[in-house]
Amino acid sequence: MSTPTAAPTRRRMSPRRRARTVRLVQYAVLLAVIVWLIVTMDARQVQSVFLRPDLVGETLLGIPQHLLNTLIYTAGAFVVGLVLGTVLALMRLSQVAPYRWLAGIYIEFFRGVPAIIVLLAFGLLPVAFPGLRFPLDPYGTVWAALGMVSGAYMAETIRAGIQAVPKGQVEAARSLGMPVSTSMRRIVLPQAFRIITPPLTNELILLTKDSSLVYVLGLTTAAFELTKFGRDLSNSNGNLTPLVVAGFCYLLITLPLTFLVRWMESKQKKAR
Length: 272
Known about the structure:
The protein is an all-alpha fold. It contains eleven helices and no strands. The longest helix has 40 residues, at 53-92.
């Protein structure tokens, strides 16, 4: 009498082979999507709507001034936000309770309110307070509004950087008789900013894009930033080419910053 033979067991796929199969499937899906886009796309229509050659040239002629405005709005707001964020971070870490409460209320408020509402409020301040004028208006108005919003975000980043500095270094400075303010200025803050440089650069990228909201202030043509300039030109020509060109100009600003952030993060990882 013969004994029944056991059914052959299925060999399980190895993790390496499974990962390779998943990658191949992902590549196949991506290739299929690209082929579908190429087959279904009307290239002539896309060019006439998004990349009309005559409008590309017309837009590029006006880009330099408005690109410069975007950079000025961004840089000024970043400086205001950095100074304000540092003060708020130190208040959050203060042993004086009212300082911590005030900083906490400010941070939560301006992180919760959209930047466009803050810009609108600052634009209407001269109406509520006759005679009030920001220096270098409209640049000063934009710097103050966006700087106050970004300062709320930077404050938490800077606070985390300060807390990441080893306490032993502060205690060593105190044991040498160094005042708290001096040790904070010479020892803690330089190391904290070295740690938080990548996230601060990300904040600079976000500010670059937030500068597109300043159109709500009703600026003159000379003070337009990239988005307002591209949108007005698109509306007057009934074509999206100027907006597309303006979008590429934002990429010229943000992509180098993005690569810089990645380089700094990889450098920090190697240093660890």
